């Protein structure tokens, strides 16, 4: 991995009091879709640490966010995360926004063990590992975990059992974590309905539907919800936000 701090001056290892320093937010999945909008929304007011799935994606992020710390982490490779995150030497972290995800919209009978494994690695196990590795830094900052879940974290149905299973499990993770860390780290779960993104294009194409972006939520709207959760005053906690398109 290239030096994770090469693009900025070590925002997170500051020993300044929280009020005197810019807050630091780590985001996964910031190259496209919802994650990209979250990074855009926060970039003016926060120091960003952005996880990219590949060197190519990292290049894209360095170009768009020249002040951000960018590092490469394929979230399907969960066992590599501890060492990669360790190289960031994060003393404090104000928030982690696990946003990267994959669809896996297919019927249960047609999903192989490898497909289940990859889907759960990216959508769930990587979040668990990010949290495990980053909790000390989050606790020091009285920080937040703001997970991008889905409407499918509440409802399942024909053809999206594996995806919904990963998002139900993610909700269980954040619900438990919220209680375990109450008073130390705040935990929010954001549940978007259909959002205009590459993932949604893939889903609509799999279903043989024409793509009409107007029917879906703009990614910027989800980014605003993330900022709201992040900036909820310290004595309170945004536990869950559900945002659905007006059109069904
Ligand atoms: N779109 C929707 O309708 C919708 C609705 C509800 C919830 N969500 C959730 O919102 C989140 C973002 O979805 P989106 O629609 O913005 O998806 P998207 O446009 O397909 O973008 C997916 C993001 O995840 C990253 N990613 C995928 N596999 C990765 C891996 N192995 N390692 C690291 N990063 C990886 C991608 O990085 P690369 O660019 O490098 O591939 C990309 O930045 C997901 O968790 C999704 O489940 C989406």
UniProtKB/TrEMBL annotation:
Q: Which InterPro entries match?
A: KR_dom, NAD(P)-bd_dom_sf, Sc_DH/Rdtase_CS, SDR_fam
> Low complexity compositional bias: what residue ranges?
8-19
Q: What Pfam families does the record point to?
A: adh_short (PF00106)
SMART domains on file: PKS_KR
Keywords, comma-separated and alphabetical: Oxidoreductase
- Region annotation (Disordered) ranges: 1-21
Q: What one GO molecular function would you report for this record?
A: oxidoreductase activity
The UniProt record lists the Ketoreductase domain at 23-194
**GO CC terms for this protein?**
membrane
Which residue ranges traverse the bilayer? Answer: none
PROSITE patterns, per this entry? ADH_SHORT
Q: Which family does it belong to?
A: Belongs to the short-chain dehydrogenases/reductases (SDR) family.
The protein's name: Short chain dehydrogenase
What is the species of this protein? Corynebacterium heidelbergense
């Amino acid at each position: 991995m290239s030096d994770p701090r090469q693009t900025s001056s070590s925002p997170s290892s500051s020993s300044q009091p929280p009020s005197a320093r810019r807050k630091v937010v780590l985001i996964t999945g910031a190259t496209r879709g919802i994650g990209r909008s979250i990074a855009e929304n926060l970039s003016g007011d926060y120091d960003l640490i952005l996880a990219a799935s590949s060197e190519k994606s990292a290049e894209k992020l360095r170009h768009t966010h020249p002040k951000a710390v960018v590092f490469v982490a394929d979230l399907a490779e969960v066992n590599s995360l501890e060492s990669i995150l360790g190289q960031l030497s994060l003393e404090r972290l104000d928030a982690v926004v696990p946003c990267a995800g994959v669809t896996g919209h297919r019927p249960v009978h047609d999903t192989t063990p490898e497909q289940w494994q990859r889907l759960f690695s990216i959508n769930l196990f990587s979040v668990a590992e990010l949290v495990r590795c980053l909790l000390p830094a989050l606790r020091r900052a009285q920080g937040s975990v703001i997970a991008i879940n889905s409407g499918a974290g509440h409802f399942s149905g024909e053809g999206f059992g594996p995806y919904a299973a990963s998002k139900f499990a993610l909700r269980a993770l954040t619900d438990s974590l919220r209680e375990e860390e109450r008073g130390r780290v705040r935990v929010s779960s954001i549940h978007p309905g259909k959002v205009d993104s590459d993932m949604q294009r893939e889903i609509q194409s799999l279903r043989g539907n024409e793509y009409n972006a107007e029917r879906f939520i703009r990614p910027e709207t989800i980014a605003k919800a993330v900022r709201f959760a992040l900036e909820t005053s310290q004595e309170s906690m945004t536990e869950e936000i559900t945002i659905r398109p007006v059109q069904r």
